[in-house]
């Protein structure tokens, strides 16, 4: 039996019987929103349900789009290359130069008008609000009732952007089992919530200067292939180990070791995507002590193995 065919049938069953009817709350189900078809040249993948999400990709859709209030949160992955995007709502207009694989997050119930100048290609990950709250509640041990999706526009995260790209591509093939795609999705949501939690992680009692934080980040980025010691980072920033570790976490939302790990995995994703090095050499280039350590940490943060990631991104 074709796994993909079964999944698509399940996804299609989620659509309202009248695709143009709003829900009782005045919102639309994602599959009832068809504004992207107006260009007459649009190309889309079939929607695939993964856990409590629906994943779909479009190309050549309308440059001007009216996005109605939806009953799902959703993540937009801006694909196809750099572009300029204008987002309007009521009296608010924001224009942003968006790089390839940047992302925007939209809360359920929000409505915007969008104009894209540049390559029109993107992936959408629609999230049932209850599913998102439950997954984040379990991952971070917090009350799901207190979980909210914070909106963002045109932001780029080296790790999250690649996780979402791999998720969108995997949804169009049978290279991964559904369970592995669910692990991918949950890994991406974990990173997404980490990012949005940074603002709430500020510790005003122990702060290190933005200049010191930038200096440390640049040092980490330039030395990922080599061992990086906490003492070296603290000395570079000009603080004690204790003060630096607390201050760095307050500034970035992550302790130094976790920040370095995510930077190493982001580098490994890029190297796997480029396909110049064999998989076993990617871990060395990203600074991991051994291939088993690399494979374990990679799966921990992406939900899949390095080999599976490379296969998806070919």
How does this structure look, described?
This protein has 314 residues and is α+β, with helices and mostly antiparallel strands. The chain has eleven helices and eleven strands. α6 (230-237) packs across α7 (241-252) and α9 crosses α10.
Main attributes of the structure:
alpha+beta; 4-stranded antiparallel beta sheet; disordered N terminus; Arc Repressor Mutant, subunit A; globular; 314 residues
CATH level-4 homologous superfamily of the largest domain: Jelly Rolls
Count of strand segments: 11
Extract low-pLDDT stretches. Answer: 1-22
Shape: globular
Average pLDDT works out at 86
Structural class based on helices, strands and sheet pairing: alpha+beta
CATH class assignment of the largest domain? Mainly Beta
Order of helices and strands: HEEEEEEEEEEHEHHHHHHHHH
Short description:
This protein has eleven helices and eleven strands. With 314 residues, it is an alpha+beta fold. β2 (48-50) and β3 form a beta hairpin.
Layout of SSEs?
Elements: H1 3-12, E1 43-44, E2 48-50, E3 53-59, E4 64-67, E5 73-78, E6 83-89, E7 92-98, E8 102-106, E9 112-117, E10 121-127, H2 129-140, E11 152-155, H3 158-170, H4 178-196, H5 210-222, H6 230-237, H7 241-252, H8 256-274, H9 279-285, H10 291-302, H11 306-313
């Amino acid at each position: 039996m074709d796994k993909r065919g079964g999944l698509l049938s399940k996804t299609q069953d989620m659509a309202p019987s009248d695709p143009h009817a709003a829900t009782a709350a005045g919102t639309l189900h994602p599959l009832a929103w068809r504004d992207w078809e107006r260009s007459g040249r649009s190309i889309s993948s079939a929607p695939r349900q993964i856990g409590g999400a629906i994943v779909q990709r479009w190309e050549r859709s309308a440059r001007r789009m009216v996005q109605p209030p939806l009953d799902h949160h959703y993540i937009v992955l801006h694909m196809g290359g750099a572009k300029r995007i204008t987002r309007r709502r009521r009296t608010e207009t924001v224009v942003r130069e968006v790089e390839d694989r940047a992302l925007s997050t939209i809360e359920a119930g929000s409505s915007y008008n969008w104009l894209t100048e540049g390559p029109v290609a993107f992936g959408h990950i629609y999230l049932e609000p209850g599913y998102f709250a439950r997954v984040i509640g379990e991952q971070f041990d917090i009350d799901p009732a207190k979980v909210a999706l914070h909106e963002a526009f045109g932001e780029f995260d080296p790790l999250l952007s690649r996780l979402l790209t791999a998720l969108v591509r995997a949804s169009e093939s049978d290279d991964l089992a559904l369970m592995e795609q669910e692990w991918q999705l949950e890994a991406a949501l974990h990173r997404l919530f980490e990012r949005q939690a940074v603002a709430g992680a500020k510790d005003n009692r122990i702060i290190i200067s933005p200049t010191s934080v930038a200096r440390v980040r640049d040092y980490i980025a330039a030395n990922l292939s080599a061992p990086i010691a906490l003492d070296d980072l603290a000395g570079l920033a000009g603080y004690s180990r204790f003060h630096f570790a607390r201050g760095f976490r307050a500034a970035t939302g992550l302790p130094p070791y976790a920040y370095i790990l995510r930077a190493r995995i982001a580098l490994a994703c890029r190297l796997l995507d480029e396909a110049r090095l064999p998989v076993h050499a990617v871990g060395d280039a990203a600074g991991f002590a051994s291939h088993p350590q690399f494979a374990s940490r990679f799966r921990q943060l992406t939900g899949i193995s390095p080999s599976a990631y490379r296969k998806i991104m070919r």
